[in-house]
Amino acid sequence: MTTTELPANMAEAISRTKQELRARIGDVAGAFAGVRDRMRREVDAVATDPAAFPVVRFRDIAEGAVPHRTLGAVRRRGCAVVRGTFAPETAEAWDAELAAYLADNDFAGTYQGPADDVFAGLASGQPQIYPVYWSKPQIQARQHEHMVAVRRFLNSFWRHESEGRVWFDPDRDTAYPDRIRRRAPGSASLGLSAHTDSGSVERWLLPAYQRVFRHVFDGDWRAYDPWDGAYRTEVDEYPSTVMCSAFRTFQGWTALSEMRRGDGVLHVVPIPSAIVYVLLRALQDDIPGDDLCGAVNGQALPVDDKYHDDDLLPALTSIPDVEPGDTVWWHGDVVHAVADGTNPDRWGSVMYIPASPHCAKNAAYAEQCGRAFLAGKSPGDFAPEDYERTWTGRATVDDLTAVGRDQLGL
């Protein structure tokens, strides 16, 4: 994979780009006023929408029988819980096997502390997010036919062909190996503030991202389609410890335990087009020339009441209660947060597994991940902690199905 070279002077690059985009849009204040009005109406609608975080039954996906009303809710809200993606007993067995994998390899005795900001403040002593990628349960879940079916279903919401080109194959997976979270009973979580991933300053500065948001920056924000895959597979982020080398149609995780709304769980602003508000807000007259509403390279793109006037955050919506084997998904641009909280008497365990369909960009990164898998090393998008190189019980090539080998470019 290649990475995009950082500007020599980031503040200067931001100022110059903002001037160019403002000139390109024309009536920047008028465009933002229109977007702001629409967002306020959407936020009000979320408050009264019982399907603000839609629920889909895996059985309906498998049978091709998802109700049209549910399909419409997922498209409008950009998020979903898929009930029963895996059997509860399967998910609970994976959770137990992961716990044994960590214990057998003395992770507690070898843990070196947080390697990036994702870990900061979440727990004392031991992490709540573990830099583990190659356990057998993770491999089994990624290549499982149910997971493949769910990701194919989610990819189908996107336009994979537009602008005269085919951008990705919605029916073929690539791997984006990620970590696990294990929050012990009674442990407190400080949460994560509202943000979006997969690009921060890049969303304004990079030509490929400007093409993704071409309608917004051409002054025709109403024409923007958050489900159009055009040019997204051509975006390369600036190098950092939180960059993403893949195009993810949906971010996601698989529940390995029961979780309730008060447990410090995921919240989203279920409005995929809210990114238009974020983009135009940074170009308004009251924002200094070298400021992109707090966006900083190497960090997630923040969304807060300092810059965004609390227009979006009232729509933050908790996931429904979930059971072991449910999967949770949100569009790659959707604003999301993790609430403060404590799970009083139960574990809060998940495997992070997104939807990353096949395209040249994703395939190149997946091949890198395949080499990391063979060596037991951390994938390239994550800090090179490499805990699993010498671990026993790590998944091997023999644990891969044909789908699993293809996902990793093997």
Automatic annotation (TrEMBL):
Pfam families: Gig2-like. Transmembrane segments: none annotated. It comes from the Bacteria. InterPro entries: Gig2-like, IPNS-like_sf. This is DUF1479 domain-containing protein. Signal peptide: none annotated. It comes from Amycolatopsis mediterranei (strain S699) (Nocardia mediterranei).
